[in-house]
Amino acid sequence: MKTTLKSKTKKVEISTEGPFTIIGEKINPTGRKKLAAALQEGNLDYVRDLAKKQIEAGADVLDVNVGMAGTDDVDYLPGIVKMLVEEFDIPLCLDSPNPKALAAALPLVQGRALVNSVNGEEKSLEAVLPIVKEFGVPVIGLAIGDGGISNDPQKRLAAAGKIIERAGKLGIPIEDIIIDPLVMTVGADSNAGLVTLTTIELVCKEFGVNINLGASNVSFGLPERDVINQAFLALAIGAGATCAITDPMKYSLTIKATDLLRGRDSYGAKYLKFYRAHAPEKTA
Amino acid sequence: MSEALLNAMAQSIVDGDSDAAANAARQAVEAGMDPLEAITKGYMAGVNEVGDSYACGNVFLPELVMAGEAMKAAIAVLEPELKKRGTSRETLGKVVLATVEGDIHEIGKSLVGTMLTAAGFEVYDLGVNVPAETIIAKAEEVGADIVGLSALLTTTMIRQKEVIEAMDRKGLRKRTRVIVGGAPVTRDWAQRIEADGYSEDAVGAVGVARALMNG
Fold first, then answer.
1. Residue A117: is the preceding peptide bond cis (ω within 30°)?
2. Can you give the pTM of this predicted structure?
3. Which residues of A touch B50 (CB under 8 A)?
């Protein structure tokens, strides 16, 4: 199964057969006060810098989130997308629950962006899927049903199935649905990791679709978060996850190593290329 | 004897040992110890210690959750005894707690609930994804002193403002104060939406709530 994203000249395939796809998470003002301030001042230099750094660090796609308290995504998303499309040749993932913001930003994308996200609740399905259909783009579907987030992998599977089915009715093909199994915090519930891993396996088996992770949440409230995140990434990739919205500066090498260990990197070429490109920084 | 038992109570919370906490509570009941004293002088000392250690980064989230479970186990044993004596726990105030509509994040809000309960507040935790009307109706029903609103998404923070505005319209703000929290919530935001209190974490929330009751 392949989900195709495009920028001006480049194509990225999120694939159940190929290497893992890294979606850079950094363009998101939640918890980043400097970015929030820069966005509100209309200063795009900070976003430009984050885009550049993430691409250098191995991001295949850039997530773009402009959600800030008391502001409307529709006022910010189009401007930032326009700048990113003009200055960078990398596919985008438009991260907004606001259909108006998505509808305003999608026409500015020269290529094929990913929409993040829809979930299995009626309200969300009705608001987001028509836009996804109109622009012919893929979408991330969060495994949340009408009852909210469940701890039961079967229920998460059912929510995923509902999204795929409803998208299908609108004529959105299954390869354009990427399921997010949801990652909760192991600190609060030590079974949370297992629930996600089981959901990944179930969704893989049932639908064979691409699977996205928001992987940094899992380690909240624990020491050495990076170690937990790395272990979790490897386990989730092993279970069938195919892309993640994550920090390329921290996790690209772990992800490349996992690809190599799964036989998806002939002669370790990608791992070594990445190592050489970044090794001098490490020893400096 | 009672000194040793109070220490054991505190330690059971620090260790997050529900069995030990419940055992100590049973011993207290058998020995005729005032259950209020067991809570305030015994278990609460442990809760405070765990809370401080968490704030310093020496204790981690799963340990805080375990301490909360141990506290619940102790209260479950002591509650019938409290009722029998006709003394309900002296409450510092009534708090209605919820994660706002559209937001399903639970941990932070529940931790605040645990800490406030442990500190002696009477907490009504309405759960996650709670509409403004439900929160306000509960606050009116129980005569809440404080309403606590959690929001973990930049897209749902605005609901905190909406709840506050709705409470304003109903003239509830004189009687009921509002505290807000959640990862994207800042002191600046709290001031902007005219909340009465803000804390970065669950431990801080207890201090904020206490200050509001005294203020």
1. yes
2. 0.82
3. none
* Closest chain B residue by Cα to residue A68: B154
pLDDT at A283 over 50: no
CATH 3.20.20.20 fits A2-256, yes or no: yes
Judge if B122 and B161 occupy the same domain. yes
More confident residue, A22 or B36: A22
Q: Are A120 and A157 in contact (CB under 8 A)?
A: no
Tens-digit pLDDT profile for residues B30-60: 999 988 889 888 998 898 898 888 888 899 9
Contact state of A31 with B183 under an 8 Å Cβ cutoff: yes
The whole-angstrom distance between B180's CA and the closest CA on chain A is 13
Which CATH number covers residue B208? 3.40.50.280
pLDDT above 90 coverage of chain B, percent = 53
pLDDT single digits (tens) B170-198:
999 989 999 999 988 889 999 999 999 99
Q: Indicate if B102 and B205 belong to the same structural domain.
A: yes
Cα dihedral value A11, A12, A15, A20, nearest 10: 150
Last residue of a domain, one of B65, B84, B103: B84
Residues B50 and B126 in one domain: no
Residues B177 and B195 reside in one and the same domain: yes
Nearest to A68 among B104, B128, B154 (CB): B154
The strand pairing partners of A13, in sequence order, are A4
Q: Is A33 in contact with B186 (Cβ distance < 8 A)?
A: yes
The CA distance from A258 to the nearest CA of chain B, in Å, is: 28
Tell me how far apart the alpha carbons of residues B181 and A164 are, in angstroms, rounded to a whole number: 35
Q: What is the DSSP letter of B38?
A: I
